[in-house]
Amino acid sequence: MDNNEIPLINVPYPPELSVEEILSRRSDERLRSKAPNQYFIYRMAYIKQLRKIIGENISMTRISPYISFSWSKEPLEVKETYKRLSDQAENQLKEIRKTNTLVIIHESLSSPPPPPPSPPTNNNIIYEPTFFYPYFDYYYYYYDYYNNCYYFY
Q1: What is the DSSP-derived secondary structure letter of residue 120?
Q2: Is 142:92 a contact under the CB 8 Å cutoff?
Q3: What are the residue boundaries of the structural domains of the chain, listed by start?
Q4: Which pTM was predicted?
Q5: What single DSSP character describes residue 126?
Q6: Which of 139, 138, 144, 110 is nearest to 27 (CA)?
Q7: If phi over 0 gives left and psi between -120 and 50 gives alpha, with beta otherwise, what is residue 133?
Q8: Quick one: average pLDDT of 73-80?
Q9: 19-100 maps to which CATH number?
Q10: What is the rounded CA–CA span in Å between residue 3 and residue 70?
Q11: Where are the alpha helices (DSSP H) in 9-151?
Q12: Phi/psi at 149 (nearest 5 deg)?
């Protein structure tokens, strides 16, 4: 096949994608964000079908207009099916989130300001060695732009 030629793709209906397949490529951090929408799932199905036909990867910027055009031509029934698949993926993500214990701090909730420093006194001097464990001083966090919150783990 010519490198400049992109074949006409008929995306299978009903979709050949499962919820597990949609979520399988996500990292743990991405499992905390929203599920892909109906168009993005359709895009995944289109790319999967295209790879079956040509057997190689094509630049996403090259095929995006084709995917968009194909989506615009799909009947409402097809779009609703992909919407239901998106909803199922979101429900699956909610179940995954329930099983994982997370500390969620929303950005709109600010922590109280730290107390003002106390004036130096002799009582603040420590005469015995203090051991610090830096391992416990590190927190890993992820900011979720969709939900406008941080996840700490």
Answers
A1: P
A2: no
A3: 19-100
A4: 0.58
A5: -
A6: 144
A7: beta
A8: 90
A9: 1.10.30
A10: 20
A11: 19-24, 38-54, 60-73, 76-99
A12: -155, 165
